[in-house]
Amino acid sequence: MSIGTINPKIFSNPGDSKVDIICTGCNRHYKIAAEKLPSNGVASFICPNCKKRIKIEIPSNKSAVSIGEKTYTTDSQGFESFDPGTKTALVYCPETQVKKQLHKELTGLGYEVRLINKQNDIRSRFRYHIYDFILLYQNGPEAKDDLTNIQEYINSLLMDIRRKILVAHIHPKGNRLDSLESFSMGSDLTLSPSDIENLSKILPSAFKTKEIAYKVFFECKTKVEEEIF
């Protein structure tokens, strides 16, 4: 049988010096010591379960994101880890002033915030870490191409990964009580710009609702994995 090449999603394992590699052929997880991975290049190994070749790409390009007069340098292609228990968030927002406000609000809530401008940014981020929260800001009646591409990537995530993430979409006619609207936009929550100043009240409830909704799913997944391993 021929061996295919699979590009896995790689993310950091907080508090550990290992990265968790997912084989997209059979969805099995493997932990590999970070120091064994090349700092810049390609590594590969055969998945013991499905016998496919897993290709691991480790790029290291850096990019800078500006908010007003302040520039945040983000190692969007390289490895980044967070301390255990750190709350992490990704923010897409094309409006400078609103971006500053969102960064301030989320930082105040204890989040480590990383800014994204296009699909490549979020794709690079998710190689090394599963973020708790993704906030998308739409500044007009129609989503711009970059936002649409980011949404497409989020929707392409493996089911068990996507269900760990709360995705909120802010747009001019957003209504956080309209669950059908949220579902149609591929998000967990739709908000209006006026809701930004109330994120401290909205987010805890939204995370709790999501946790309850998928509690049985993750309990069953854990049980199956324990039986397999």
Please tag this protein with its features.
globular, 5-stranded parallel β-sheet, 31% helix, 229 residues, Rossmann fold
Task: Tell me about this structure.
- This protein has 229 residues and is of the alpha/beta class.
- It has 2 domains: 5-58, no CATH class; 63-213, Rossmann fold (3-Layer(aba) Sandwich), CATH 3.40.50.
- Helices cover 31% and strands 27% of the residues.
- It contains 7 helices and 13 strands.
- It has helices at residues 96-108, 119-125, 145-156, 159-162, 179-184, 199-213, 215-228, and strands at 5-6, 10-12, 18-22, 29-33, 41-46, 53-58, 63-67, 70-74, 87-92, 111-116, 133-137, 166-170, 189-191.
- It has a 5-stranded parallel β-sheet with strand order 10-9-11-12-13. A 3-stranded mixed β-sheet has the order 1-6-5, with no helix packed on it.
- Helix 2 packs parallel to helix 3.
- It is globular.
- It starts with a strand and ends with a helix.
- Residues 1-16 and 59-77 have low confidence and may be disordered.
Quick take:
By secondary structure, the protein is α/β, with parallel strands linked by helices. It has helices at residues 96-108, 119-125, 145-156, 159-162, 179-184, 199-213, 215-228, and strands at residues 5-6, 10-12, 18-22, 29-33, 41-46, 53-58, 63-67, 70-74, 87-92, 111-116, 133-137, 166-170, 189-191. It folds into two domains: 5-58, no CATH class; 63-213, 3-Layer(aba) Sandwich (Rossmann fold), CATH 3.40.50.2300.
